[in-house]
Amino acid sequence: MTSLQDKIIATAREKNAAIYAHTYQPQEIQEISSVVADSLELARRSKDGPETTIILCGVHFMAESAFILAPHKTILLPNPDAGCPMANMINEQELLTFKAQHPGAPVVTYVNSTAAVKALSDVCCTSANALAVVKGVPSKEVIFTPDKYLGSWIQEKLGSEKIIHLYPGFCPTHQRFKEKDVLAMKAAHPSAVTLCHPEVNPGIRRHADAVMSTSQMIRYAGEHDENEFIILTEIGIKYPLEKKYPDKKFYFPDMKVSCPNMKKIALEDVLNSLTYGEHRITVPEEIREKAFIALDKMLAYK
Ligand code: SF4
Prior knowledge:
Layout: H1 3-14, E1 17-22, H2 27-31, E2 35-37, H3 39-48, E3 53-57, H4 60-69, E4 74-76, H5 92-101, E5 107-110, H6 115-119, E6 123-125, H7 130-136, E7 141-145, H8 148-158, E8 163-166, H9 179-188, E9 193-196, H10 202-205, E10 210-211, H11 214-223, E11 228-232, H12 238-244, E12 249-251, H13 267-276, H14 285-298
Parallel strand pairs: 1-2, 1-3, 3-4, 5-6, 5-7, 7-8, 9-10, 9-11, 11-12
Helix pairs in contact: 1-13, 3-4, 4-14, 7-8
The structure holds iron/sulfur cluster.
Iron/sulfur cluster binds at residues 24, 59, 84-86, 112, 171-174, 234, 259, 261-262.
């Protein structure tokens, strides 16, 4: 730990604040966080955890979700510029237009979306529970927004059980994997199991042995006897994987796939957040109430 990290931990204790970090955050941020998790677990902890002030080290929609679920808590995002391009690929009007094209189909919205879009949705999901959520919707036709690749993976899994109308959003970071790199890694490490995030496109996904969320990857590596893994998701997951399983080997493409938005939070921002109570994230009550319904339904799914 550096002296700045020690100072942040001491200040958080003094202010009775908790630091939560997404698995894609820089290592130095993960090291000072009491919770390091994926979007689903961060949402659960924000709602049920004992802390009244949460410094959320992630991107804007994660802090919004925390506030929607726990409006009595103070939710701080250390850098207000940390957004998510996928979440910004759909707004309220675009969702209303898409809904009009598929009348009657319920809307399942990935948490990587704005509060206003969640408020217009029937239920939310994360990559950890998207399959179960779509399966659980009592309708053959479903609108899935905004990630077309996560949606296409669910369609593949569910086959003729559902007709999924895919909104054409995507994660620019997860589109940076190159097929030639993946094939080269597989050739170099023939015993490695390839795990892929569902935000990755189908051309890459088809080379994976299993598709899953970040929390599921971390669990999978612990629960299986294999010792080598090729990991196709954002590079931030390298730290928790190697920390948890020092005897196993995890391979990533040479060209590190890193989300520039997830890396916008620096230790200095976290200290400022704790010291000055910035940047407080809230959602207008009429939007929050509707978005709460969609998000809270999501929490019932594992
Ligand atoms: S990794 Fe992709 S989906 Fe996640 S915050 Fe970055 S841009 Fe958004």
